[in-house]
Each structure stands twice: as structure tokens, then as C-alpha cells.
Known about the structure:
It contains twelve helices and 26 strands. With 506 residues, it is an alpha/beta fold.
Amino acid sequence: MTTEHFDILIVGAGLSGIGAAWHFQDKCPNKTYAILEARDSIGGTWDIHRYPGVRSDSEMYTYAYNFKPWTGTKVIADGHEILEYIRETARENGIDKKIRYGVKVLKADWSDATNTWTVTAERTVDGETKKVTYTCNFLLSCAGYYSYEAGYTPEFKGRKNFKGPVVHPQEWPEDLDYTGKKVVIIGSGATAVTLLPAMAEKAKHVTMLQRSPTYMANIPEKDHISDALRLVLPDMLVHRLGRARGVALQRGVFRLSQSAPKLTSTILRGLVKRQVGNKVDMKHFTPSYNPWDERLCAVPNGDLFKALRKGHASVVTNHIDKFTKNGILLQNGEELEADIIVTATGFNIQLLGGMQLSVNQELVKLTEGMVYKGTLFEGIPNAAMIFGYTNSSWTLKSDLSSEFICRLLNYMDQMGAVKATPINNDPTIEKHSFITDGSGCTNASYIQRALKNMPLQGDKLPWKVHMNYLKDLPMLRYSSLNDGTMEFALTGTLEDTNEPMVVISG
């Protein structure tokens, strides 16, 4: 079996993977690359999630790529619109022809002898699975931050007693009919906030059962400013203006939340009160934490609040005691009747798509090392990941990270380097969790479960992870590449002469 070799291997054909491929084609046109996708289609998150009402939780001018204008009319787009946008990007640029479908990456080993990665994967074709290998000079994970195989569902006491279906949004059955049914959605995050108004249109009644309230913000369904500008300005210019406006608004709200949390909380709860009126107890919309300690949920056109006002849905704040035959028994003794239970309880966090990394056959523990500029890994050559913002649109960071990797690869070519490795030479650096206070979702349950499986960050640059586009922009787009932390190897060790590699650092 012949092993295919590429300059770059991208793991994942979702939003980040397709975006990274575009940047490589644009800025590193002489590099060969392929995308390894475990599933049989493009789209990642937006192809997997098929639950009712699935949509973005960020406004689209910042969630869309910086190189392809978003021309849709909705501020918060439906999932199928985002999926088509990603697929259209791939088709227009020939990226779809670079994808190897059905390839589940298992492990990757870096060799100092050859200065290459050897990637071992399983490829499934027509139901038959075989081991395949690829080699590359640079490895980039665009596999997101959660497992695509199954969502996270806690162990609920008495689950087997419930007579109806229990469904996780990540594994939504195509034939699930909830017309005229009583539905209980467990959760209060973006998925639950999306599901409630969508299901309330056909269900008899929908109840959102939450352990604690979430901050929510009503936003317009359409961007009338951009719609008007598009009549007289080119799409790309309108896109850039919308993107700048979106960044400013996101950063403004986040900074206000951090600097004046009580004021922000009062404003957000006041806006919700105006939406729900006196029919809904505000205790269900009064979180115990400060705004942006967890992600703020967007409610386009107030659809969730409308469902509550009309009596088609309700919110209950309590803890689950157990599942019963007819629904859920709460700790206060109340029983919620249900025909269907939806567990919108989050994800199973998984970096690199579950891929194991090793260097010279020695397994790497990512949890012991730091991340360089939020993208590369301490002590690991020629490898990076795309990890977007938790307090803003994911794509703002993924675009910048892809641009940075392109700059790095071109710089390596200019100096004749075959290897680039971030090395920590500062013994005074204090290490912290990859996602820390100020990141915008530190308290989220799925983040708390995942911290033990994530890499670290430092308390100073270039090891400090910014969750701030305005700080990342100059660092990733313009900062020096030969910064005293990155080590570049100009030649590999020659096995026949034992000639050592030449290393430039700083």
C-alpha cells in the first residue's frame, strides 16, 4: 500500500477546516494539502445537528469567513443556511476535491529523522474499514472541541422507567414526531433556547427544565442596516462593515459585563422582563453568576419569549430527582409530565478529534504542555489546532489562526527551515487552565468537565490565550515569527553521517 504525502494535512472538513484550506490555497499556493474527514460529508457541526430550529448562536458577519461575504438576511442564521455557505465555499474553490471522506484519524507520530508526521487512520468505504497511513510536513487539527460520536447525557436515576423516547439533540431521530406531545427539554443553553420555540410550534406544550437560569438577550432577526447598504455597496464591503460592527458590539457587551456586572445584569434582566411581561416569574431569568461567566444566549426576534407569553411553553427551575414512567420527578416533589424528554445537556469535549500525538514514538500528553499563541503546542513540532473564541464568534479566531499558520509556513520556506517548535525557556511562567476566568464560559458545565483533558496556558505571552479578537489580530497577523520562543531547525539529522540539525532560536 502506497502512503500519500502532503505538505499539510487538515483533520476535519467543518467550518474551520474548509476555512483553513482556503487560506492555504490563497497564501501558500505551492503547498499540497488534503483534508481528512471522518464522516461522509462536509459541514461538521452544521451537518451533524439536525434538531428542530438549529441555528447559529453568533451573528453571521463575524461567524462567516473573513474572505467570503455573508449575503443572507438573518442575523442569526438557520443551520441549513450555514451548511450551504460552507459547502458553497468548498465548491467554489475546489476544496471539496481535496477531501478524503470516511477517514477517522487515530494517531500521528512525528519523526525527527524524516521531519514528517505519519498519520494512521481508519478508512471506511462501502462498509469496509481498512487502516491507512499518510505523511505530511505540517499537521493541523480542525476537528473542533467535542466528540461527534455522541453528546453528553448525565446518568439520570430511573431513566429506564420512562415510557417515552429520551433524545439528545446531537443524535436527533429523523422520524421523531412531537406533534401534540408534551415535551420536557433538560438544559438552558443555546441548544435548549433554540429547541423550545421551534418545538412549541407543533407540540402540545414544551417545558424547559433548568438547574439554574441563563442570561438571554433578544436580538433582531434581520440586519436592516446591511440590507440597505447592500443596495448601493459591494457585498464584500457590506460584509466587512458588518463584521467590524459585530466585533465592536461583541467586545463592548463583553467588556461592560466584565467591568460592570451588576449594571449589565440589571439591563439584561430588564430587557427580558419587557419581553415576558407578568406571565413568567423572573426567577427563571435571574442567574446566580455574572453576565458572561457563561455564554450569553441570543434569542432572535424574541421567539422563546413569544412562546412563553402565548402559553405554548414554560420554564421550570429545579433539580431532577429521578425519571418516572410519566415524566420527571423534581426534588421539590413536583412531577413534570412528558411524552418526550430531550437532554440538551451539552457535549463530550474532545480535542484533535480524539487523535493521539507522539514524537519519535513517545506519547505526548497535551495536558502537561501549554499552547503557543492559542494555536501551536509546546514542544511539539509542526502541529497546530484551530480553537475559536468562547466569548465571541468562533470564526474570528479560526481565520486569524489559519493566517498565522500560513505566515509561519512561508517564513520557514524563506529561511529553509524544516521544523518549527515552540519551546518554553522562561522558568517564571505560571501555568493555568486553557480556558480561565474572563474567557466567557468558564462556569459552563461542559467546560468544567473538560478542563482536565485540555492543554494549559501561561500567564504571559506568547503562552497566554487571548479570548479577545482585538488583541489576537496584531499578534497573529503581524507579530514577529522568530520571537525567541519558536525554534527553527534548518536541516534534519542525517542518519548516515550523524550530522546534527541546525537550530535557530530567537
